[in-house]
Design a protein that fits this description.
The protein is of the alpha/beta class. Helix content is 52%, strand content 11%. The chain has a 7-stranded parallel sheet with strand order 3-2-1-4-5-6-7, with helices on both faces. Helix 1 packs across helix 9, helix 3 packs parallel to helix 4 and helix 4 packs parallel to helix 5. It is globular and about 65 Å long.
């Protein structure tokens, strides 16, 4: 039997762990020796998470956390501090896909997207930051390549992810001055169910798109093919989360695949926007 180390395992809290990258990241962090608090909005949806943990032979501390409910966030973080006495990292992974375009959706729908994908990240990060300062911890947020490149019929989703990236890029030097590392993780297409993620009936969406129906149909055909054939696994994407957790000096921006690096690179070297729009115009032609 190996002797116990004097230092207790570091503690990470991960949001949105019922499926996909969040689930894979929780299992990977636990396998790497972190005490992993895997949170989700609806604990009744934890079956897949529990099964994955069992198959990996790891223990997860599964708790409820709704990123749009400040009382839920406070309760979860207070519980972690009460039980473990520390919080060394937070992974903001919870989010929701959305499909729509300006004329065909209400501003209220856009606000709802922002509430989950942007303000939810801020709610959790704000509550965690004092404890991350105390531990010299890490604040990690799963964004998207859609946080760098605007994509047709994803205006609201990309706006939220752009906002997260801008916020975290601005926060990073301030947090670093107090010992907290800030990183964003940029996945491309991940092999989770696209239709389920956006939460709409795609045939009905095209039928109701009016003048934009041909463009939406073209976009969906292209995107579903990408998710079906060119997507990486959630486990592969979670490797970048683990890198941000464990690297001595993690990068601010980590893409999860070579495809994502090439895609994001198009924008980061595109001073006048012509390369990006030349590409995305073709998605709706």
């Amino acid at each position: 039997m190996t002797s116990q180390t004097s230092q207790p395992p570091k503690v990470v809290l991960i949001t949105g762990t019922s499926s996909g990258i969040g689930l894979a990241a929780a299992v990977s962090a636990a396998r790497a020796g972190w005490t992993t608090v895997a949170t989700l909005r609806d604990p009744s949806r934890s079956d897949a998470l529990r099964k994955a943990a069992g198959e990996a032979g790891v223990d997860l501390d599964i708790r409820r956390l709704d990123v749009t409910d400040e009382a839920s966030i406070t309760s979860a973080i207070d519980g972690v501090l009460a039980d473990y006495g520390r919080l060394d990292a937070v992974v903001n992974n919870a989010g929701a896909g959305h499909l729509g375009t300006l004329e065909n959706e209400s501003v209220a729908e856009v606000r709802k997207v922002m509430e989950v994908n942007f303000f939810g990240v801020l709610n959790v990060s704000k509550a965690a930051m004092p404890h991350l300062r105390a531990s010299g911890g890490r604040l990690i947020t799963v964004t998207s390549v859609g946080g760098v490149i605007g994509q047709p019929f994803n205006e609201a989703y990309c706006a939220a992810k752009f906002a997260v990236e801008g916020y975290m890029e601005s926060l990073a030097p301030v947090a670093a001055a107090h010992g907290v590392s800030v990183s964003v993780i940029e996945p491309g297409a991940v092999a989770t169910e696209f239709v389920a993620n956006v939460g709409v009936d795609l045939e009905a969406a095209v039928a109701g798109a009016g003048a934009y129906a041909p463009q939406l149909s073209a976009y969906l055909n292209r995107t579903i093919a990408q998710f079906g054939d060119g997507a990486q696994t959630a486990e592969g994407a979670a490797e970048s989360v683990l890198e941000a957790l464990t690297a001595d000096e993690p990068a601010f921006r980590l893409q999860t695949s070579d495809w994502a690096r090439g895609f994001v690179g198009t924008k980061l070297t595109d001073l006048d926007g012509s390369a990006v729009l030349g590409m995305t115009n073709g998605w709706v032609a």
